[in-house]
Design brief:
The protein is mostly beta strands and 567 residues long. The protein folds into five domains: 105 residues, Beta Barrel (OB fold (Dihydrolipoamide Acetyltransferase, E2P)), CATH 2.40.50.140; 98 residues; 41 residues, no CATH class; 136 residues, no CATH class; 139 residues, Kelch-type beta propeller (Neuraminidase, 6 Propeller). 10% of the residues lie in helices and 40% in strands. The protein has eight helices and 38 strands. The strands form nine sheets. The chain has a seven-stranded mixed beta sheet, with helices on one face. The protein has a five-stranded antiparallel beta sheet with strand order 13-8-11-12-14.
Length: 567
C-alpha cells in the first residue's frame, strides 16, 4: 500500500497514510486536554500530531510508546491553532473518529532513534530548538533547579536538573533534563552514589529542554579497556533483538556485532537463539512476498519486515539449515535457487537446479537438501539433491509413485524419521533418500485422518490442528512409531478461540510450538500463539500456552512460508 511523506501533508484531503516514529509524547491543555505527539518519518521530516482525550480513548491503541514506529491513516491536516510550534512543519496532524493507528513491524536502520553527535552541537550544525537523542555516559549530575520547576496542566510539578555527559569520542556536553524523568533520575543517582545509568553503560538522553556548550567541564571518568576476547563474550551474551540498538553505541561495537567472529563466539559459548522468519504477502495474487522476522523485545512478539532482503514470488520451496534459509523455484516454474544468511541478512545465488519447479516438496536429510516434484511427474529428474558442502545439484534417479499428482505440486511438507512426507488431495507420500524408497498412505490411513496444511514437526512428532475437535482438544499429535493420533493436553479450544484455522501455519520455534493465524473475524491481522511442550510419563505431550500476541497487520495477509533458524 502506498505510503505518504510528512513533507507532502496538506489540508486538501484526509485519506493520508504514513509510517512514522514517535519522538516524544506529552500532554497539553488548550481548549481541552490533548495528547501531543512529535512524529518523524524515514526522511527525518517532523510534524506535530494532537489527539483529544475522547478520540485517543476510542480510536487508537491504549498504550502508545515513544521510540516505536506506527502506521497512521485517515487523519486531518490543519493549520496550527496556537503560535507555539514544536516542529518546522507548517501544518499539524489532527486525529478524528476515522483515524486508525497501529504499531508497525518494520526492521531497518530507520527503526532507531535519530542520534546526533556532540560535535554537531558544538559546530551549530543542528538547531537548538529541537528535541535530540544522544548516547553518552553521565559524568556528573547537578542539583535540581527549583527556579525552573514547572507545573503541568493537572497542577503537578516537575523539576529540571542539569547533566554533564561524555560520549564515546570523549566529547562533553552540558544539558538540562526535563519532566518527571528529571526527578526520577536524580533520585536514582543520589541513592546509588555513582555514575549510574538506567540501562547498561550508556544512557539514552532525549527530550532535552536546551543544550549549551560549556568550556570548563570536568575531565572524563577514566575508563578501563577490557581485553577484546572478554568484550566479544559480553557482547555475544546480548540477545539478538537488542543488538541493532547496541551497534549504535560506537563504531567498535558495530564492527564487532557485524563480524563473523561474533557469531562464532555465540555458537561456541551456547548463546545462539532461535529466530523465526516468514514470507508474507496477499493470497490469490501473483505479487512478490516480503520477508519478516519474529522477535521479542521489551514489547510482545511481533513481525518486522527485513527490507534488505529482496521480495520473492510465491510458489517457492524453502528449508532452513543452521543460520541459513534455502529457497528453490517459484511461480512460473523456475530453476533458480538462493540462500539467505540470517546473521547479516545477506542473499547469495546458488547454482541453478536442473529442472524448473513450482510448489515443490523440500526437506533436509543428513545435511543435504532434497527437492521433489514441482512440475509434471517424470522418473529421470523428479528428485534433485543439493550438496551444501560441495555446492552442486545432482539428479536422484527414482521411480515416481503412481499416487503422485500429474503436475507434481505440493503445499504441505514435513521431515520425520529421516523421511520427507508430503500430502496431496487424496493420499500422503513419503520418500526415504537413504534407501531410495517410496511409501504411500490412502484416505483411510491414520496419518491422513487429521494431517492438514496447519502442521509441523517438533521432536520427530507431527503436530496439526483438528478442526473437527474429534479428540476434544484442538491440537493433535501423531506418533509415527505407534501410528496413532493423541490430543495435546493442556491446550483447549478456548485458548485458541481467536484463530482462523483456514489461514494458519505452524512452526517449530526452538522446541516450542508456534501457530501463526489470522484473527477470527479480523482478516487484516495475524496473531501468534506460542505453546511450550513437555513430555510426561508414558510419552504423553503436555502443552502450555505461553503467549498470544498480535504480530502483524496488512490487507488480508497470508503466510507462504515460515521457518526457524539459529543465530
Amino acid at each position: 500500500m502506498q505510503r505518504d511523506c510528512i513533507a507532502n501533508l496538506n489540508p486538501s484531503r484526509t485519506d493520508w497514510n504514513i509510517d512514522v516514529k514517535i519522538l516524544s509524547i506529552s500532554y497539553k491543555r488548550e481548549f481541552m486536554v490533548k495528547r501531543v505527539l512529535i512524529l518523524a518519518d524515514q526522511r527525518g521530516d517532523r510534524i506535530e500530531a494532537s489527539i483529544c482525550y475522547q478520540t485517543f480513548k476510542h480510536s487508537v491503541p491504549n498504550h502508545i510508546y515513544d521510540g516505536e514506529w506506527y502506521n497512521i491513516r485517515d487523519f486531518k491536516v490543519i493549520k496550527p491553532v496556537l503560535p507555539e510550534r514544536n516542529t518546522n512543519h507548517q501544518y499539524q496532524i489532527k486525529y478524528f473518529e476515522k483515524t486508525d493507528m497501529m504499531i508497525l513491524g518494520t526492521l531497518s536502520a530507520r527503526d532507531y532513534y535519530r542520534f546526533e553527535d556532540f560535535s554537531h552541537v558544538f559546530k551549530g550544525v543542528i538547531p537548538f530548538n529541537n528535541l535530540y537523542d544522544f548516547y553518552g555516559s553521565v559524568i556528573d549530575v547537578g542539583p535540581m533547579k527549583e527556579e525552573f520547576r514547572k507545573v503541568d496542566e493537572y497542577g503537578n510539578t516537575y523539576g529540571v536538573n542539569s547533566l554533564s555527559v561524555s560520549c564515546y569520542k570523549d566529547e562533553h556536553i552540558f544539558c538540562h533534563l526535563r519532566g518527571y524523568s528529571a526527578d526520577k533520575f536524580l533520585t536514582e543517582w543520589t541513592s546509588k552514589g555513582y555514575n549510574t545509568t538506567f540501562k547498561y553503560i550508556y544512557l539514552l538522553i532525549h527530550h532535552l529542554i536546551d543544550i549549551t556548550v560549556e568550556e570548563n567541564l570536568p575531565p572524563p571518568v577514566a575508563r578501563v579497556q577490557l581485553p577484546r576476547d572478554i568484550t566479544e563474550i559480553i557482547i555475544a551474551r546480548v540477545p539478538r533483538c537488542y543488538q541493532p540498538n547496541l551497534s549504535l553505541v560506537c563504531k567498535a561495537f558495530r564492527q564487532l556485532i557485524t563480524s563473523p567472529q561474533h557469531f562464532s563466539t555465540r555458537l561456541l559459548h551456547g548463546f545462539t537463539e532461535p529466530v523465526l522468519y516468514a514470507l508474507i504477502g496477499e493470497p490469490f495474487k501473483i505479487t512478490p512476498l516480503s520477508w519478516s522476522i519474529l522477535y521479542r523485545s521489551n514489547l510482545p512478539l511481533r513481525f518486522r519486515r527485513v527490507p534488505t532482503l529482496r521480495p520473492i514470488l510465491p510458489g517457492c520451496a524453502g528449508v532452513t539449515v543452521g543460520h541459513k534459509i534455502y529457497v528453490m523455484g517459484g511461480y512460473v516454474p523456475k530453476t533458480t535457487a538462493i540462500f539467505i544468511d540470517c546473521r547479516l541478512h545477506t542473499l547469495e545465488n546458488l547454482p541453478d537446479m536442473q529442472r524448473a519447479r513450482c510448489y515443490a516438496a523440500a526437506g533436509v536429510i543428513d545435511g543435504k537438501i532434497y527437492v521433489i516434484g514441482g512440475y509434471q511427474k517424470r522418473d529421470d529428474d523428479w528428485v534433485e539433491v543439493y550438496d551444501v558442502e560441495r555446492r552442486v545439484w545432482e539428479t536422484v534417479p527414482s521411480q515416481s509413485p503412481d499416487d503422485a499428482t500429474l503436475d507434481g505440486t505440493f503445499s504441505n511438507t514435513v521431515v520425520m524419521q529421516g523421511r520427507i512426507f508430503f500430502r496431496i488431495l487424496n493420499c500422503c507420500l513419503a520418500y526415504d533418500p537413504r534407501q531410495g524408497l517410496w511409501q504411500s498412505w490412502g484416505l483411510e490411513s491414520q496419518l491422513m485422518r487429521f494431517w492438514n496444511s496447519t502442521s509441523c514437526v517438533v521432536g520427530d512428532l507431527l503436530y496439526t490442528v483438528d478442526r473437527t475437535f474429534s479428540l476434544v482438544h484442538p491440537i493433535v499429535v501423531y506418533y509415527p512409531n505407534e501410528l496413532v493420533w493423541r490430543p495435546l493436553m493442556g491446550v483447549s479450544a478456548y485458548d485458541l478461540r481467536m484463530l482462523n484455522y483456514e489461514w494458519s501455519k505452524m512452526a517449530n520455534f526452538g522446541g516450542k510450538l508456534v501457530i501463526l493465524s489470522r484473527y477470527y473475524g479480523r482478516p487484516h491481522e495475524i496473531c501468534c500463539v506460542v505453546t511450550a511442550l513437555e513430555t510426561r510419563q508414558g510419552g504423553q505431550i503436555q502443552g502450555k500456552v505461553e503467549s498470544v500476541s498480535h504480530v502483524y497487520r496488512d490487507v488480508f495477509p497470508y503466510i507462504e512460508l515460515c521457518g526457524t533458524v539459529t543465530v
